[in-house]
Design goal:
Length: 512
């Protein structure tokens, strides 16, 4: 039992969340916002102004400045950092940090000044491409071609070649700046970079975040020699080892003991990506529970024991910090598409919910192809089709249209997640639209499982804190996260809706 810190380096800021495992309580939170708190880095939203279309980079020194600022703020607020027994963290996935030989030399720690000034000379590249970057289409095609096609890349690494994933980003750097690539001694992910700084030496990349690079062989858990060779020369020598997320990276660096009063024996657990951490923070790391997050885009995460991959190549598979694997599926047309229908009928969200309540499951056969913008799952250009009665888009048809978009979105989710969610017993829904009881009920009825609404606030930081607690105390991650589960509302599936929705899903399948 003890006090554990979870850090979360997201796109827009760095957050801290502290838990007391004895009382199963979150005891403290603190946030740094890059734009507001560190304006000198000229990144109001956490990234630098794109220099070219689709190019999104961040300054890794800003992340270090945020770490100093966060600990200083925690101390100023009276939080005693010396009480922390172990810490871990979460990073936005895919971002790569390029470091020179100096980073591997422990002497670089001995400098003067704050973290940013100590580590500025260790950067082999001034900026880190982040997950929003989509500028590497050519590199994706080159890597896929070298390995025998995207299906093969997906079968090995868990994802097709993806623009924002690290391999394509590394290849682009090698092609554009061969000399700087040559000077690079080690390439870290955002997560393993911050972990290294805290542990005082170059740490391993954990297999959860490592699987988001298009470089890890999921089945073996090692870097894949074919993918490495297809990406850039001598890459094996530039990557840290990959290790299971539950491993310890060491004890905290002396800098943090001196500057902020951490205790010397405070352990640093390997960091992981935000999605693997969130899976833990939401208590879904054991197979059977699925998380559906209803945000601007909708996402679905599920865990499983075997290294399954999406036969259609839409989803991503990462390693699960609790062991085994997890998938992440993104449905680009989430709340933005629901909002389009809401606005078309001049409703607010309450009105949207009322319209749902006035219509019946299955919507008398009315459905919608709901891709208002280009969709990821399935890959599709923007496409909106109404299938059903002819007056479907008329003003008096609000109830039909509202039900059609919601039912069609979850029919689409059920079809495209089928490979990953064979034996689910529960769906945890979270995100803005999960406030809507009618939507929760439709999810329960379409999937025919219990739906639990959960309120989450920074599940990635909570997941990291729970991982630190598990590593340090030896308690099972599953037991720990269950103890932190929020009180929530349950929606039971209506057995009478099973047949209606089985037919509805099949009808939807015929139209996409
Ligand atoms: C996942 C992804 C994002 C980032 C955002 O593939 O790109 O979820 O991890 O933080």
């Amino acid at each position: 039992m003890g006090i554990y810190l979870g850090l979360d380096l997201s796109t827009q800021g760095l957050s801290a969340l502290v838990i007391n495992s004895a009382t199963a309580a979150i005891t403290y939170r603190c946030d740094i916002n890059f734009g507001r708190d560190l304006p000198q880095y000229e990144s109001p939203n956490g990234f630098l102004e794109p220099q070219r279309e689709g190019e999104y980079h961040a300054n890794p020194l800003m992340w270090l400045a945020a770490l100093d600022r966060l600990f200083a703020r925690m101390s100023a607020e009276g939080f005693d950092l010396g009480t922390i027994d172990a810490l871990s963290g979460s990073g936005q996935q895919h971002a790569t940090v390029y470091l020179n030989e100096r980073f591997l030399d422990l002497q670089s720690w001995a400098g003067e000044g704050d973290l940013a000034s100590r580590f500025a000379p260790s950067l082999a590249r001034a900026t880190a491409p982040i997950w929003m970057d989509s500028s590497t289409g050519a590199e994706c095609a080159e890597i896929a071609a070298a390995v025998g096609g995207d299906e093969r890349v997906c079968a090995i690494s868990g994802s097709r070649t993806i623009e924002r994933f690290s391999a394509a980003q590394i290849r682009k750097f090698y092609k554009q700046s061969a000399a700087a690539y040559e000077e690079t001694a080690v390439i870290h992910l955002a997560s393993s970079f911050i972990c290294s700084i805290l542990a005082g030496r170059s740490s391993a990349i954990d297999s959860g975040d490592g699987a988001g690079m298009n470089l890890l062989n999921l089945a073996s858990g090692e870097w894949d020699s074919e993918l490495l060779a297809a990406t850039a020369p001598h890459l094996a020598a530039k990557l840290p080892p990959v290790q299971f997320s539950g491993e310890c990276a060491g004890t905290i660096a002396a800098y943090f003991v001196q500057e902020y009063g951490f205790k010397r024996e405070c352990s640093v657990n390997l960091f992981s990506g935000d999605n693997p951490n969130s899976l833990v923070g939401m208590g879904a790391e054991a197979p059977g529970t699925v998380v559906v997050s209803l945000g601007t885009s909708d996402t679905l995460m599920a865990s499983f024991d075997k290294p399954l991959t999406d036969p259609n190549g839409y989803g991503h598979v990462f390693c699960n910090p609790a062991g085994g694997y997890m998938c992440l599926l993104c449905f680009t047309n989430g709340s933005l598409a629901r909002e389009r229908v809401r606005d078309e009928f001049a409703l607010d969200w309450d009105g949207f919910e009322k319209q749902l309540a006035q219509s019946a499951p299955g919507n008398n056969g009315n459905l919608m192809i709901p891709f208002f913008t280009a969709e990821t799952t399935p890959r599709s250009e923007a496409r909106v089709d109404y299938v059903g009665q002819s007056d479907f888009t008329q003003r008096q048809s609000a109830a039909k249209a509202v039900r059609a978009i919601v039912e069609s979105q979850f029919a689409n989710m059920k079809i495209h997640a089928a490979w990953a969610i064979e034996n689910i017993t529960r769906i945890k829904v979270t995100g803005g639209a999960s406030d809507n009881d009618q939507i929760c009920q439709i999810v329960a009825d379409i999937f025919q499982v219990e739906v639990e609404r959960i309120a989450t606030s920074n599940s990635a930081a909570l997941g990291a804190a729970l991982r630190a607690a598990s590593m340090q105390s030896g308690s099972s991650l599953i037991d720990l996260s269950a103890a932190f589960a929020d009180q929530s509302r349950l929606f039971a599936p209506d057995p009478a809706a099973r047949k209606i929705y089985d037919n509805f899903v099949e009808k939807f399948r015929l139209h996409i």
